[in-house]
């Protein structure tokens, strides 16, 4: 076909353009199907994968002295709470709830020893958090924290 002095060849150019467009559309369709679908509700997919073991080997477990008592505390490892055995002074496990609470708080607040850090353990307890006596009108055996619960992280509250 001729229009003026320009000759139009529609066949090969259209096929090449159509093939390129089809390839781009196929690549876009494949790429869009690879992602995570959005949802309108929160989804708990769990903690992110980690190479940190979150457990102590038997050689890493410390022996405790005769004047201490074994307690189980919770530390943070890969965004999860994991139990760890610790030793506290035997006189800190008496009948007074305030003494017991202070001893346990001190155990989970202190920086984990080297063997626990190597295993991935950390603490989420803020440095200034304290335990105080209950006020008049509080239930028997209650203790109070120096911070409001909403000011603490979820791990610290657990």
> What is the string of SSEs from the N terminus onward?
EEHEEHHEEH
Summarize model confidence as the mean pLDDT.
79
Beta-strand proportion = 15-25%
Q: Strands across the major sheet, in which order?
A: 1-2
Tell me about this structure.
This protein is an alpha+beta fold. The chain has a domain at 68-157. It contains four helices and six strands. The protein has helices spanning 11-32, 97-109, 114-118, 154-157, and strands at 2-3, 6-7, 68-77, 80-89, 131-133, 143-145. The strands form three sheets. Strands 1-2 form a two-stranded antiparallel sheet. It has a two-stranded antiparallel sheet with strand order 3-4. It is elongated. The mean pLDDT is 79.
Structure in a nutshell:
By secondary structure, this protein is of the alpha+beta class.
Task: Describe how the helices and strands are arranged.
Blueprint: E1 2-3, E2 6-7, H1 11-32, E3 68-77, E4 80-89, H2 97-109, H3 114-118, E5 131-133, E6 143-145, H4 154-157
Antiparallel strand pairs: 1-2, 3-4, 5-6
Protein name: GerMN domain-containing protein
Keywords: Signal
What distinguishing features does this structure have?
about 160 residues, 6 strands, alpha+beta, two-stranded antiparallel ribbon, signal, about 30% helix, two-stranded antiparallel sheet
């Amino acid at each position: 076909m001729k229009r003026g002095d320009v000759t139009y060849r529609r066949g090969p150019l259209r096929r090449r353009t159509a093939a390129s467009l089809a390839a781009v559309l196929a690549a876009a369709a494949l790429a869009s199907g690879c992602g995570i679908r959005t949802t309108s509700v929160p989804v708990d997919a769990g903690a992110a994968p980690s190479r940190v073991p979150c457990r102590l080997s038997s050689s890493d477990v410390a022996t405790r002295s005769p004047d201490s008592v074994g307690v189980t505390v919770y530390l943070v490892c890969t965004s999860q709470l994991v139990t760890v055995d610790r030793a506290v002074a035997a006189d800190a496990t008496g009948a007074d709830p305030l003494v017991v609470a202070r001893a346990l708080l001190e155990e989970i607040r202190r920086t984990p020893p080297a063997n626990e850090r190597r295993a991935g353990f950390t603490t989420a307890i803020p440095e200034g958090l304290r335990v105080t006596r209950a006020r008049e009108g509080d239930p028997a055996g209650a203790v109070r924290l120096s911070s409001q619960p909403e000011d603490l992280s979820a791990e610290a509250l657990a």
